[in-house]
Amino acid sequence: MRRIAILAAGLIAALSPVAATGQSMTPMRGEVRSFTDAFAVRVFPGNPYNQRIRVEVHVYDQDFQPVAARITPSAFLLAGQASRPVLVVVPFDGANERKVRICTESIPFPSEQTQIRAQICGKFFGHRRF
Amino acid sequence: MKFFRVAMAASLLAACAGQTASAATGNVLFNGTITATCTITINSNGTMTVSSNLQSLSSHNAGGSAGSAQVDTTGGVSLSVDPVTTTTVPASDTTATTWTPTFATSGAQTIAETGTATALTVPGTSTVAVNLAGTKSGTNRFSAGNYQATVTLRCE
Q: Range of B117's domain?
């Protein structure tokens, strides 16, 4: 029974998400023409580690203020050496063009005095066509 | 009849002998476009220690260490650190602290320690040292307890 408990604890430790930080994202530049009230960008966050990490995708304007964009998915676990598509739909909010930063962020190591959060930001330019 | 066949064969051979084999050549073009890419891998976090006058808590102080990260890029990107907004301080510390994050790189591109956004123009792998310094002014002092701060290292 004790062995099972130890094995279960070991498995939980092995399978729990590793809070390492590291990111990549492609593409990092883009220009989109849209005929609707929003434009869409598909980015591919990547995990350069061999273990899975938690990734969050955020959208900011040029002043790094959050933009109410639709991000699918906005937070997820990413397997080691893997990447996955994330669809970002950015509203023009009445403007004819909009510049945004789409940023892939990671969760820092816990229990350290000075943590480093890695953030990869791509710059995207949406044009509205009528 | 036999003579006729021989004559025909000979004339055919004579007609073909002067012809060269015709071969056409064409170029196959290959195009490739590399857009800017950047990968940040955190190697280690940093450690801050307090100065003897208790007014500086920094990774530059004796016993402290910088955080380390690796940046792989094609160039055409910039590296920066954000102002520190996420900190944890002991309950006994009620005075203001000014946090100053800085970074320096070595390897593919060398950047002297700075706190402002700097272009990474050289493709390759650079090692980034991330430092953080907290300072108190006047009669304010750091107090005993655990401090923690998060520095955002951005490649864009």
A: 38-155
Mean pLDDT of chain B: 89
B137 touches chain A (CB under 8 A): no
B88 in reach of chain A (CB within 8 A): no
Chain A residues inside the 8 Å CB shell of B82:
119
Contact B140, B86 (CB under 8 A): no
ipTM score for this prediction: 0.77
B26 in any annotated domain: no
> Cβ contacts (< 8 Å) between A122 and chain B: which residues?
156
What does the angle CA A29 – CA A118 – CA B86 come to, to the nearest 5 degrees?
125
Q: Are the Cβ atoms of B154 and A46 closer than 8 angstroms?
A: no
Give contacts of B 100-129 with A, CB under 8 A. Answer: none
Q: Are B96 and B18 in contact (CB under 8 A)?
A: no
Interface contact A22-B150, CB threshold 8 A:
no
Is position B5 within any domain?
A: no
Question: What is the model's pLDDT at position B34?
Answer: 87
pLDDT, tens digit, 9 for 90 and up, residues B121-150: 999 999 999 999 999 999 999 999 999 999
Taking the C-alpha atoms of residue B28 and residue B44, their distance in angstroms, rounded to an integer, is: 48
Give chain A's domains with CATH numbers: 18-128 (2.60.40.10)
A31 CA: distance to closest CA in chain B (Å): 13
Q: Is B56 helix (H, G, I), strand (E, B) or coil?
A: strand
| Residue B29 vs residues B9, B25, B26: alpha-carbon distances, Å | 45, 13, 10
pLDDT digits (tens, 9 = 90+) for A45-89: 999 888 888 899 999 999 999 999 999 999 999 998 999 999 999
